[in-house]
Structures are given as structure tokens and as C-alpha cells.
Amino acid sequence: MVIQTIGAFLAVLSFSLLLEVPRKYLALAGGAGAAGWLAYLLAESWSGSVIAAAFLSSLLVALFSHIFARAFKAPVTVFLIAGILPSVPGASIYRSVSYVIANEPELSSRYLVETLQISGAIAVAIFIMDSLFRLGQKK
Fold first, then answer.
1. Burial class (CB in 10 A: 0-12, 13-18, 19+), 11
2. pLDDT in the model for residue 136
3. Separation CA 48–CA 86 (nearest Å)
4. Residue 22, CA atoms < 13 Å, CB-side half-sphere
5. Which of 106, 105, 60, 52 is nearest to 80 (CA)?
6. What is the distance between the alpha carbons of residues 89 and 98, in angstroms, rounded to a whole number?
7. Do residues 75 and 97 make contact, with C-beta atoms less than 8 angstroms apart?
């Protein structure tokens, strides 16, 4: 898990460079992504569900993104877009397309549904955290 978390940090750091994240925020974006990936690994081993793991890790990344944005007076998206990268269901969509090409519609449908569920879990997690922070601002 440690090696994967370090790899996630480096991947998010590299992706942040591509997104032209300001240099002073690179380590924070990488840290948010690494923490999210560690949460993903722990949640997946605990629950056995990639959808629950994606949801919980996305909640954590969104939480860190909002905290960092307020602490460092930066847009939330600076940390969120890069930090959410490890949770994106790339393997599931790859498998779905691969099974379409291999003419195996049952497996293709299974992985397509999994991809949509993971994507929905990520979107809902971001929405929930954003809503909670907006409610906190109004008080």
C-alpha cells in the first residue's frame, strides 16, 4: 500500500504539472491524491467494493480540496481535479471496450455498469462535500 500511495502522489504531481497547477500547490494536490488513493485501498480491502471505495476516497479528496482552498486562498478545483485522478475508473472502461471488441457483451455490460456506478459515486461524493461546505458558509 505504501508503494501504491507514493505512486499515486507522483502520478497526481505529474498530472498537476500538465494542468499547470501553480508550483506552490503541487505538493498539496499530490498529497490530496495520495491520501485519496490510500483511503481507496483501505476502503476496498475493508468493504470489497470498488464503488464504496471510490465514494469514500472521493469524499476525502473533496474534503482536503475544500480545506486547502480555504487555507491557501485558492480555487477548490486546483486541488480537486488533480486529486481525484487516482479514483477515476479507467480500468473498468478499458475492460468494457476490450470486451466489446472481443464480442463478449455480458462482460462488456458488466464493466460499463461498474464504470457508470464509480463515476456516479465520485460525482455524488464531490456534490455532498461541496454542499456541506456551502451550508457552513451561510451560517
1. middle
2. 82
3. 18
4. 10
5. 60
6. 14
7. no
Q: pLDDT tens, 16-69?
A: 999 899 999 999 999 999 999 999 999 999 998 999 999 999 999 999 999 999
Query: Which residues, 6 or more positions from 59, have their beta carbon under 8 angstroms from its beta carbon?
Result: 125, 128, 129
Q: Which amino acid is at 126?
A: I
To the nearest 5 percent, what fractions of the chain are helix, strand and coil? 90, 0, 10
Distances (CA, A) of 36 to 80, 103, 138: 11, 35, 28
Q: Which residue has the cell 475493508?
A: 46
Full-model pTM: 0.88
Say how many C-beta atoms besides its own lie within 10 A of residue 27's C-beta. 12
Cell of 14: 505529474
Residue with cell 451550508: 135
